[in-house]
């Protein structure tokens, strides 16, 4: 029996590099994690009831709980704060992160810090909803955001054990060389991101394509079984041989 997908959100953070294309933040999941252990992913996680409550309290709807979850998880996992007003300094971020790690509700931590949310800083990019035989599936909204120039990302030491700012092309090359593990949705996303030389290009591309749940499917291409996705959602590669695909 296929598991029911868990609502989740993830954040693709861009920062300008000294030269070349922008870098994105990726974290390596701890080996003990039930989902995608050891894989390089974008910061994110499940949407909690508190995210819905905070969205409701602010009169937000639609994808607001997912945006809140993406912001919260990125603070928890990487110590980078996006979409907060006023913009916190490193000390304030540290306090927020410590409060979240201690189990304090995000709404309470924000109120104690005198901060509010600005969800408009996130741009919807894609939605992945796999459907394969596993014990844990996620229905994940992917968002784009620009990292503050002062961002100082730090591992949390629990859910992730390493993080890096890297270009999409470099992460794909590392995976191809066996130096990193990436799962199918991450690979397809990196291939799409690798085409952009600026954050603005990524935002424009997101606006040019619909956000529709992507459920990979098996199809034959030239007599070889491939794990495929639709071809109208902005992804330059829409299939990979099934025996090579890492689903997570």
CATH architecture: Alpha-Beta Complex
CATH topology, by name, is Nucleoside Triphosphate Pyrophosphohydrolase
**Radius of gyration, CA atoms, in whole angstroms:** 18 Å
> In sequence order, what are the helices and strands, one letter per element?
EEEEHHEHHEEEEHHHEEEE
How many structurally independent domains? 1
Name of the level-1 CATH class: Alpha Beta
Largest sheet: 8 strands, mixed
Overall pLDDT, averaged?
90
Low-pLDDT runs: none
Q: Write the CATH homologous superfamily.
A: Nucleoside Triphosphate Pyrophosphohydrolase
Number of H- or I-type helical stretches: 7
Output the structural class: alpha+beta
Q: Per DSSP, what share of the residues sits in E-state strands of 2 or more residues?
A: 25-35%
Question: What best-fitting shape do the alpha-carbon axes yield?
Answer: globular
What is the number of beta strands? 13
Helix content: 25-40%
N-end to C-end Cα span = 18 Å
């Amino acid at each position: 029996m296929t598991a029911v997908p868990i609502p989740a959100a993830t954040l693709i953070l861009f920062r300008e590099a000294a030269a070349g294309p922008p870098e994105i933040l990726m974290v390596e999941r701890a080996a003990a994690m039930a989902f995608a252990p050891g894989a390089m992913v974008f910061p994110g996680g499940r949407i909690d009831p508190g995210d819905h409550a905070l969205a409701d309290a602010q009169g937000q709807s639609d994808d607001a709980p997912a945006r809140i979850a993406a912001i919260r998880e990125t603070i928890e996992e990487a110590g980078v704060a996006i979409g907060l007003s006023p913009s916190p300094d490193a000390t304030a971020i540290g306090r927020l992160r410590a409060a979240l790690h201690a189990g304090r509700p995000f709404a309470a931590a924000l109120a104690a810090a005198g901060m509010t949310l600005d969800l408009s800083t996130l741009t919807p990019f894609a939605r992945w909803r796999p459907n394969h035989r596993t014990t844990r599936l996620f229905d994940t909204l992917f968002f784009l955001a620009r990292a503050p120039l002062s961002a100082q990302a730090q591992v949390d030491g629990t859910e992730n054990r390493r993080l890096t700012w890297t270009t999409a092309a470099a992460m794909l090359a590392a995976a191809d060389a066996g130096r990193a593990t990436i799962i199918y949705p991450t690979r397809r996303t990196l291939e799409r991101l690798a085409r952009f030389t600026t954050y603005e290009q990524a935002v424009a591309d997101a606006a040019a394509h619909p956000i529709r749940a992507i459920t990979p499917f098996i199809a034959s291409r030239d007599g070889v079984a491939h794990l495929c996705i639709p071809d109208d959602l902005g992804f330059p590669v829409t299939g990979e041989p099934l025996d090579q695909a890492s689903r997570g």
